[in-house]
Amino acid sequence: MYIATSRGSDAAADVPKSGVKRAVTGNVVALGLVSLVTDISSEMVTAVLPLYLVLGLGLSPLQFGVLDGLYSGVTAVVRLVGGHLADRWQKLKAVACFGYGLSALGKIGLMLAGSSTVAIGAVLAADRTGKGVRTAPRDALITLSSDPEHLGRAFGVHRAMDTFGAFLGPLVAMAVLWLSLGSYDSVFFTSFCIAAIGVIILVVLVKDHQPKPRAERTKVSLRETAGLIRQASFRRICVWAALLGLVTLSDSFLYLVLQRRWELGAVFFPLLPLGTAGVYLLLAVPFGRLSDRIGRWKVFLGGHVALVVALLALLGPVDGGILAVLALVLHGVFYAATDGVLMAAAGPLLPEHQRASGLALVQTGQATTRMLASVLFGLAWTTWDLHAAVLVAAGALAVVVVAAAVLRPLRTYA
Fold it and tell me: Could you list the residue ranges that cross the membrane (predicted)?
């Protein structure tokens, strides 16, 4: 295994005295453990939200699309804020810790919100804000703790640990509900306790990136952050990530389409994300290593091809449910081939002192367009019908994937 020590990275602290180098450093594993624990907490709460809002509160697909888009897109602006402040203050760990802590407090907020949809919406917005603030500094720490040539593997390990938490979350929630005789407050309180453990792990085990001596440091301005777009390769990655996000069906809608097409009972709905998470968990590391070997952009686009096929599977006959399983498997392949791989492709293009800001730009563009995608798909479903909406989504995604393959970014580690 290998650790980067180039370009001033503090990953050198993880080099064993024997001189043996590792591809995945202790810092990456510690960050993965934080994400694992935090995702258990998060998925305990979010597993049943789509079904609750649509079937429980009777929202139309368009109304749900707006809420789902806001839920996903509320992180867009705060990602930029979190990334910029982390670079400006050179406090990646501190800013990430604030984000994780805010999300943890949100679980207590759910206990206090009761049945008020306004209060629940505010608490969920706070939780998403915490996620948005922490994401770019965390991913920047991963890139700064790894060698550019092995970033795909490093992100694969991190995302695999993160996804294992997402896999366990719904199961833990079901166990807590069973033991507490259906008490949702017990789920929220347990979720808070688990999230608090994640914050403690971050404080104790994760090493911050060591900035340059104060005399050599320059504060990162907003103009400098915006200036990153002038770099052709990075600009193209940002543009294509945003365009692909605009034609990507959200997780919640994909699960709702599965539920409607195959008329799954409400009791089985929370288990659908486990199918995606299980495949993602198995493939995150292999796909990360594959992206290091054959090119990250190829793997990234291949993941979107898998999503196109998954959407087409949703249009097939409902007999037997084989296509439903195929759609979930391909959905997991999509995430394994895209989530961490995109960050691994963009990270080496950015200066160390602007790593969090640059990654936040990529993430913000993607989050913003995915918010619009949810609204557009909800509108299409409401205006036309489910079949037509899915067919248009699959066709639009296929067109953008082909265009991204032809007009790929310039020189990258992809």
Answer: 108-126, 163-181, 187-206, 237-258, 264-285, 386-407
